[in-house]
């Protein structure tokens, strides 16, 4: 099976593609069979405009596990939609006729499907029938919709599913949610497909169809496996001083660096304190270095604020580690990349072997090609 991830922006799509293409990164581990190759789809000349789609080929991970992987990592802020696409064609008539035959096939199968059971805490459904095991991720509104009917959740969902099946059988129409790219492709598809009842909420099957540059990628699968949990990035960062905090989560996960409660970090250029705040939640202690103030939310009991420039804070940094060294050195000073690197260099001996160094390189402007910037840095260094 192949899966297409739709990101919220083209730069996120590029990052997803790079992450998925790098076997040594931990975002889509090859060992777990996430994909064999990854490619961005669509015209990408403009650099940041495009369909924001990334095709992961030969995915061996189940939709349920994939959904769970997204929701339990920084990817929840990247992936807005997913399309499970088993088939490809460049012919529209072939697309329609194949989809119609798939619908026919699923109708016969699914009218006999067994009821589902709701696992409340897991926010997932699981079918009692082997050929239909699922892991539907409920959005908050769906969860409250299903549980607000006033019965125990298991019986509510079972009843709900059974009544869905009954309706499908009576009407001889499969209740399908169309997930298409572009979105308005759904309208013409709905007109051309037979025996389906298009639904946003009460559906038993998901029909995926993505059209990019005259190529159709499509598939039909159990609605219970659909990824419906796209998260608002602002919402994800709502507990933090700034969204930048999530960057550290991303870096740590990309490199498979586990943050643990026995770790010590130095945060250079820490104000207003989003990184410090994030680290203070996940590790033992943070030494935050910045002449500027830290916001109150960052001033936790396990945070020491050294109100100095990093180049003047060596003594305090040494004292705070009591000679044991740092597990992490993070630096987000708003300086030219080479200046920032020069600031960090003398402090590297304080980083433990295997420790994590995070240094932001502040490049201005949009676009993917940073060759010119690299030349600028070289010129600065010489
Ligand atoms: C982009 S902000 C850092 C944001 C921070 N990472 C956060 O999560 O809130 C850059 C900070 O670097 C600090 N800075 C610049 N040069 C510095 C230096 N040489 N030593 C320490 N801090 C420095 C500035 O005072 C500024 O607060």
Automatic annotation (TrEMBL):
<feature type="domain" description="Ribosomal RNA methyltransferase FtsJ">
    <location>
        <begin position="240"/>
        <end position="334"/>
    </location>
</feature>
<dbReference type="Pfam" id="PF01728">
    <property type="entry name" value="FtsJ"/>
</dbReference>
<dbReference type="InterPro" id="IPR002877">
    <property type="entry name" value="RNA_MeTrfase_FtsJ_dom"/>
</dbReference>
<protein>
    <recommendedName>
        <fullName>Ribosomal RNA methyltransferase FtsJ domain-containing protein</fullName>
    </recommendedName>
</protein>
<dbReference type="InterPro" id="IPR029063">
    <property type="entry name" value="SAM-dependent_MTases_sf"/>
</dbReference>
